[in-house]
Amino acid sequence: MKHIHRSAFARLLEALTADGYRLIGPTVRDGAIVLDRIDGLDDLPAGVAEEQRPGGYELSRRDDDRLFAWAHGPDSAKRFLFPPREVLARVRRTENGLVTEPAADEDEPPLAFVGLRSCDLHAVQVLDRVFLDLDPGYRRRREAAVFIGVNCSTPGSTCFCASMGTGPRCTIGFDLAVTELDGGFVVEVASPRGGEVLDRVDSRDATGEEVAFVERTARDAERRMGRHLETADLPGLLYRNREHPRWDDVAARCLACANCTSVCPTCFCHDVTDQVTLSGDGATRTREWASCFGEEFSHIVGTEIRKGRAPRYRQWLTHKFAAWIDQFGTSGCVGCGRCITWCPVGIDVTEEIDAIRKREAVPA
What residues pair up with 274 in beta bridges, in sequence order? Predict the structure, then answer.
């Protein structure tokens, strides 16, 4: 492990910009810490703290200038690797026939993600299973990107990444991972690309005390995790309890607003729509995020197969915690807790699963 001063971290970001990367990092906007394009260290949320709870999120000030002493906001890398709305194809009618135009700007700059937590790095790995082999736009953005992760020191009250085995310490999916100290960072290099970036700034070997701090930070964060979820036999539990009365209970509270699927770093459902110009000379095919909570999501042959909120919530939660394991070999949940924080009525997936486990509708 290496140690760099805070000023060297600033120069590291400048080096990435000089190399043509577009920096995507946390910054304060509209009362939240969001991921957005940043110019450098000065855009990071220095001295900002956050409080998360079911259905609630607010910022406050710290008595220091730490950059990453918070859990996460509503955004994740998904919004940049798998955009909410993306043109897939354009076609024009010309005198020589139909002409297909490039759907996306293949010259768009590569992305450098700054400050992703371990849960979000794991979420990218989940999205890879869905898009990497099939979606050229996603693959281009993903393979060109640099990932600078941050070992979490301040989990939120709705976080449960420790239960899902996805945090709080960065273990996969990063080029560099940093642990913040007063005035500097301990840096772990995980790829040749990360090593090349780190070589651009002054660094030294981390001391034994600094390495121990990294280990201690991870242990302390795990102990202070806001939520816990028992994950034993989740697929079997949910498949056995399709008719559990808890589904109706949660449906009575759910607004079907789709906030949970929008902020989820792994939800990938989408619609594809075609638009044709009035003249008939052009057409555009567009992909947009969709949600299984929408009325039209399960519209098949003139009807909806999931007409109420109970079957829609059951579909979402069972797919996330059971069918994903069958389909992709991993849970679709990384324990970030965003769906709890950003649910307007504070529905807590850990509580819903625990309620089903405590009172199974059928014998195990």
Answer: 285
261 and 171, same domain (yes or no): no
Two tokens, residue 129: 């299973």
Q: Domain range spanning residue 37?
A: 2-82+105-223
Lowest mean pLDDT among 114-123, 190-199, 293-302: 293-302
Note the pTM of the prediction, 2 decimals: 0.93
Give tens-digit pLDDT for 17-40: 999 999 999 999 999 999 999 999
Question: What DSSP state is assigned to residue 354?
Answer: H
SS3 283: strand
Token pair belonging to 78: 């998904």
Inter-CA distances, 43 with 24, 36, 67, 109, 200, Å: 11, 10, 10, 20, 21
Please tell me the distance from the alpha carbon of residue 84 to that of residue 107, in angstroms, as a whole number.
20
Confidence band (pLDDT; 50, 70, 90) for 97? confident
